[in-house]
Amino acid sequence: MVDIRKKRWSLLGIAAVAAVTLTGCAGGSTDAEGGSGEGGSDATLIVYTNSNSDGRGEWITEKAADAGIDIEIVGLGGADLTNRIIAEKNNPVGDVVFGLNNMFFEQLKSEEAITAYEPKWSGEVPADAGDPADGVFWPLVEQAIVTVYDENKITDAPSDEEDLWTDEKYAGRYEVNPALGQATPQLVLASILSRHLDEDGDLGVSDEGWDLVKSYYENGSPAVEGTDLYARITRDEIDYGVIPSSGIAARDEEYGTKTGMIVPDYGVPYVTEQIAQINGTGNEAKAQEFIDWFGSAEVQGEFATEFNSMPVNEGAVDKANPEVVELMGTLDRQDIDFGFVSENLGAWVEKVTLEYIG
Q: In angstroms, rounded to a whole number, what is the distance separating the alpha carbons of residues 268 and 271?
């Protein structure tokens, strides 16, 4: 029986898995001119995404054209893209947005910047992977955010990541990213605080939760801009750090590491890339056609084959890399209320920035 409190997986065998990173996903940005409000059914569809790098934007554009859908990709980072869509909500430029995670989509939903549409493939995805309450956004692909180390060097990793932050023997030996404007550091913070919610606590979090956050930032080694986590691990600057699961295999291949992962009994946070129609688009029929097409089992299966992604559409899973499917099946999902997180994340980030990061 596998001990879910300490799963160490040798991942050299899946070195072919491409890195699909949570942050920095957006490639070159293309500016769309003018709003889509005047567009008709034959207008070019403006598709916003933070997931167009590594040839994905070009692939989607070409495949959509083959399907008779003329699109223009506009790529930005997650936070910037979210802010742009909200800023444009009274005069929307984009028609569809995909690639952002649950937290960002919850923000768009709360601002009424996106609108509900039930895709034809809605019955092929788990209801709780998107927006089960209102069906405003729908899931496409997913990955886990994990604490990793090199099994070539570490043979006695702790079974819970919280030990790294509270046991003095690990002080300075794990990387912490204080850039809370980025998606992955935000998700790490949400993961910590979501385990220690208290309606009577400061900003809805117990004292224990805030003490853990303080320890996390206080005892970690700050990330070095422009330096990969695995480069620091191989140089013996640190032993542990956080990374999206899809980036592991490529780094093992590049750095000669043998990645192990700390998987606590409460699981690890997952990020699920979503898709939605932008509220107020004047190209509604074409936007819905694109959503139906892109999220379908056929297209998501082709996308998974091309980019080694893990599709949420159950009909596309058999086209995914078997090693990717196996890996994701071993990582238990942490229960996070992304609606609550979205409502409180801004205040959490402000508190942490002022009190713990400085």
A: 10
CATH number of 12-16+143-269+335-357: 3.40.190.10
Of 300, 309, 276, 353, the closest CA to residue 111 belongs to 276
Token readout for 185 is 């550091």
Q: Residues for the chain: how many in total? A: 358
Tell me: pLDDT of 25 over 80. no
- CB-based contacts of 24: which residues, under 8 Å, 6+ apart? 53, 77
Give CA–CA dist 163/174, Å, rounded.
11
Q: Return the structure tokens found at 119.
A: 């895709």
- Vertex 128 angle, CA 185 and 131, to 5°: 75
Average pLDDT rounded to a whole number, residues 199-215:
97
DSSP letters along 265-333, please?
A: TT-B-EEEEEEEEETT-S-HHHHHHHHHHHTSHHHHHHHHHHH---BSSTTTGGGS-HHHHHHHHHSPB
Cα angle for residues 259, 260, 263 (degrees, 5° grid)? 140
Q: Distance (Å, rounded) from C-alpha 354 to C-alpha 358? A: 5
The per-residue pLDDT for 250 is 77
pLDDT in tens, 41-98: 568 999 999 888 778 899 999 999 999 999 999 998 787 899 999 999 999 999 999 9
* Domain boundaries defined on the chain: 12-16+143-269+335-357, 45-142+271-330
Bridge partners of 11? none
3-state DSSP assignment of residue 186: helix
**Matching CATH number, 45-142+271-330, of 3.20.20.70, 3.40.50.300, 3.30.300.20, 3.40.190.10:** 3.40.190.10
322: tokens are 């078997």
